[in-house]
Design goal:
elongated, alpha+beta, single chain, 10 helices, 15-stranded mixed sheet
């Protein structure tokens, strides 16, 4: 019988940012992981039931909000049962819970990105297979993809785990447990600490907290940065934000823009721990402030100072947050209500037309890397591109895409946001927009393909809109950063994460002309 190991806590960091905190226990033929994803604000409780050869026969995954009470309703409940050539995926509980059977190679193991527990199990499986190099099939818990990890041992206690082109360097104990690991290419470190002596080991660590983001105006700025609160009465929540307000004469009113973030939880700068140092909305707000345009940018629901609101929010709900922001600006005596614009990036570029089509008083919209296709079509393109980048082709490529599709359908059924995004078609919405539109698209964007810019423009024009401008910018990626390659798998390798000056100039000059 496997001996119980002491409970271990790992903290995954990139530079000064804490990404994940994980508490792991091995005992009685099972592994328990309590996993806090700080960037997503999620707490994942995972159990793996083990079999000889370091195999996993069953895994149960419970997902909650990080701050939720232990008895709060789950966001997701997934059970994986591994058999010889398939994994049975059950989402939810009871006889009516959706079930999918996904083909996998024999010996496949569950994998959760940034989880030491799942990486450790892969290493243990590789050790049981023998030799200095081993291939271990992987089933992604979050994405449903089936892929293969390669483990290379330099000696009995040091290994490199390669997965999707990324290397994890790991040092293990004589019993095979990870004691330290890092991903050099992404500057991520996994350091083991003693069990924190707190009632909840996941919500506090011995590390000093990261400094709060600085949203103040630069010393030379011709504007002030004001902390504001925006109430969305429909959702019953308050959102925190920063309004950069150009200096103006007493009694004068200035034009303004509201910024809309892309998908995933991001703060008002559109910052995310996954890409340290990337703060595009701060740079855009600064550029517009220097042109005399006020900018309101807000923390997403549940991020920073914003309240989370009801569970299951979709892009339509996020559109209501932006409508509340417009209402807030229209109520100020220093903002010109007749000269308001929206600037949406990625998902925000999908949301902005939804608002413009229902708000004739809105003056203009800027769409940056906004999709023209359904989320399902965009996701299909991204999955195929990622698999091709891994070197897959032919029958193997199509088999992995099919396996991904089957699991994705289960996820869509259980996730309201994903379900809305997959089904929303931006084209009919675009035909109802009458305001001036600027469409900016990076030519090397690998997340929203460049040809979608002209597809959107055609839809706006087909509806009778005569003020539609398209700019496809060479060597600019989805992050708005200069990047000749553009692959989203290489974001961590970029040396500079500043917004391209061309992007800032295009937005600034177009809005300055439309809002004056």
């Amino acid at each position: 019988m496997e001996q119980a190991s002491a409970a271990r806590s790992f903290v995954a960091t990139r530079n000064a940012d804490t990404l994940v905190i994980e508490h792991i226990t091995r005992a009685g033929g099972r592994v328990d992981s309590d996993f806090l994803d700080k960037s997503q604000g999620l707490r994942i409780t995972m159990t793996m039931v083990l079999a000889p050869g370091a195999l996993v026969t069953r895994s149960e995954i419970l997902v909650r909000m990080a701050t939720a009470a232990p008895d709060a309703p789950l966001l997701q409940h997934v059970t994986l049962v591994f058999e010889s050539d398939s994994v049975t995926v059950t989402t939810g509980e009871g006889n009516s819970a959706p079930v999918q059977h996904v083909p996998v190679p024999p010996g496949a193991l569950p994998f959760l990105n940034l989880s030491v527990a799942t990486a450790e199990q892969i290493l243990m499986r590789a050790k049981s297979l023998g030799g200095t190099t081993a291939q271990v099939p992987i089933f992604s818990i979050t994405g449903g993809q089936v892929t293969t990890a390669t483990v290379r041992w330099s000696d009995a206690q040091n290994a490199v785990l390669s997965l999707a082109g990324v290397d994890l360097d790991a040092r293990v104990s004589p019993s095979g447990e990870i004691v330290y690991a890092e991903v050099p290419a992404q500057k991520v470190r996994f350091a083991m600490e003693g069990s924190p002596e707190t009632s909840d080991p996941l919500l506090s660590t011995t590390r000093s907290p990261a400094p709060a983001p600085d949203y103040s105006a630069p010393a030379d700025a011709p504007y002030v940065a004001e902390e504001v609160r925006v109430t969305n009465a429909r959702a019953g929540i308050v959102l925190a934000g920063t309004l950069t307000l150009p200096h103006h004469a007493a009694g004068a009113r200035v034009p303004a823009a509201v910024m809309i973030t892309g998908s995933g939880p991001q703060d008002r700068d559109e910052a995310t721990p996954a890409i340290p140092g990337w703060r595009p909305f701060r740079e855009i707000a600064d550029a517009l402030g220097r042109r005399g345009i006020a900018v309101l940018r807000m923390d997403d629901r549940g991020v920073g100072g914003s309240e989370r609101g009801p569970a299951g929010a979709t892009s339509a709900d996020f559109a209501d947050d932006i409508r509340a922001a417009l209402s807030y600006l229209r109520g100020r005596d220093d903002i010109e209500a007749a000269r308001l614009a929206l600037i949406g990036h990625s998902e925000g570029g999908m949301i902005a037309p939804m608002i413009a089509a229902t708000d004739p008083a809105l003056h203009a919209i800027v769409l940056i890397a906004g999709p023209s296709r359904t989320g399902r079509a965009v996701s299909d393109e991204q999955v195929r591109a990622a698999l091709i980048a891994r070197g897959l082709s032919g029958a193997q490529l199509e088999a992995e895409i099919a396996a991904n599709d089957r699991v994705r359908e289960v996820q869509v059924a259980a996730n309201p946001w994903l379900r809305f995004w997959f089904g929303h078609d931006p084209i009919p919405v675009a035909t109802r927009v009458r305001q001036p539109v600027l469409i900016l698209q990076g030519a090397t964007d690998s997340q929203v393909s460049p040809e979608q810019a002209e597809e959107l423009a055609s839809a706006f024009r087909a509806g009778g809109n005569r003020d539609v401008t398209v700019r496809v910018l060479p060597e600019v990626n989805h992050l708005l950063v200069h990047d000749p390659g553009g692959s989203f798998t290489d974001y961590a390798k970029l040396e500079r994460l500043s917004v391209s000056p061309v992007v800032l100039a295009e937005i600034g000059s177009w809005l300055e002309e439309r809002l004056r």
